Amino acid sequence: MIIGITIFSCNQKKQSSQVNTKIGTKTTKSFNVSDEIPIWANGIPDSLLVTGEETIVNGIAKNVSKPTIKIFSPKNENSGAAVIVMPGGGYTKVAVELEGSEICEWLASIGVTGILLKYRVPDSGPHYYKGCHCEKDPIKPLALQDAQRAMRLIRSKAKEYNIDPNKIGVMGFSAGGHLVADISTNYRKKVYSKTDEIDNVGCRPDFGIVFFPGHMTNHSGNPYELNKKIPVDNNTPPTFILQAGNDPIDPIENSLVYFMALQKAKVHAEYHVYAEGGHAFGLNRTILDNPNWSELPIADWENLVERWFKTIKMTSNN
Question: Are 286 and 247 in contact (CB under 8 A)?
Fold first, then answer.
């Protein structure tokens, strides 16, 4: 069992960020990008639950009824590891750029295949409902359906995508962080009816990376108790968690209860807490108004993740 926890003060000096030199772009051609690939081949389960026309404005996708993946493959050194990236958006929208394609570009730049999952929204996971000013569960777990299917699809085509089928993890932000925990603990049973042979492939992630998750204290009767619909056990994959203590959207209790459950189950877990950083941030910017973002210690989070990949032997120390 290996468990790590760090708490950072805003008074610590920020290391010089390597983000700008690490992120590949189409001009430098440090990675290749596929077209959007539909994840369902023979009909989308519960397809009538999402209506309206899909739009993507300023990097935000809404009314996603046809979920897809987009693959960012390293052009040079390839570790064989891959990460399915699940952006946030409160299960009402999907932040496909800030918490999606930009993250996948960085992953590809360090030799890890980044896979952007554009999952169905709205109301595809637990979400805030204005009618009662409360949280509601989805009619059907559409986002988890898409996450399970995406993992099975990638694993079934691992050789084609130059990926090691035993090195496929998930990474999510906010609602996407909840989705990481959801598939990391609810992988034994399909949450949809079988559609083809790909659905026979296992969907347990090999690791999980959770950023400022939400919905983790729903369905809990006591303070500091994890959502009962996130059934952590000793087979939950190794997990990295990171959050800012001043998050105004999803309080830090959300990440704390998940870490506590992982620790109790003796899962390899690492937990990083920073004094400042807020919510809805990516590699080098944040949706919320935070003009000093680049000066904060939390802005170097990618260095921690890159080292963590090595400690769990997803990438090489060489």
Answer: no
Which value, in Å, is the radius of gyration of the alpha carbons in the chain?
18
**Tokens 């990618």, located at residue:** 302
Q: Are 240 and 308 in contact (CB under 8 A)?
A: yes
Q: Residue with structure tokens 């998940």? A: 258
Helix count and strand count (H, E) for the chain: 6, 15
User: Looking at the predicted structure, is the pLDDT value of residue 23 above 90?
Assistant: no
pLDDT of amino acid 162: 97
| Contact status, residue 29 vs residue 295, Cβ threshold 8 Å | no
The structure tokens listed for 71 are: 């693959």
Q: Please state, in angstroms and rounded to a whole number, the distance separating the CA atoms of residues 279 and 98.
A: 12
Find the Cα–Cα–Cα–Cα dihedral 102, 104, 109, 113, rounded to 10°: -170
CA distance 260 to 255: 9
C-alpha torsion angle, residues 168, 41, 137, 228 (rounded to 10): -40
Q: How does pLDDT run across 128-152, given as a tens digit for each residue?
A: 777 777 789 999 999 999 999 999 9
CA distance 241 to 256: 9
Q: What does pTM read for this prediction?
A: 0.91
| β-pair type (239-244, 208-211) | parallel
Asked whether the CA dihedral 183, 184, 186, 190 is positive or negative, the reply is positive
On whether the CB atoms of residues 177 and 211 are closer than 8 A, the answer is yes
Sign of the alpha-carbon dihedral angle for 155, 38, 108, 86: negative
3-class secondary structure, 27: coil
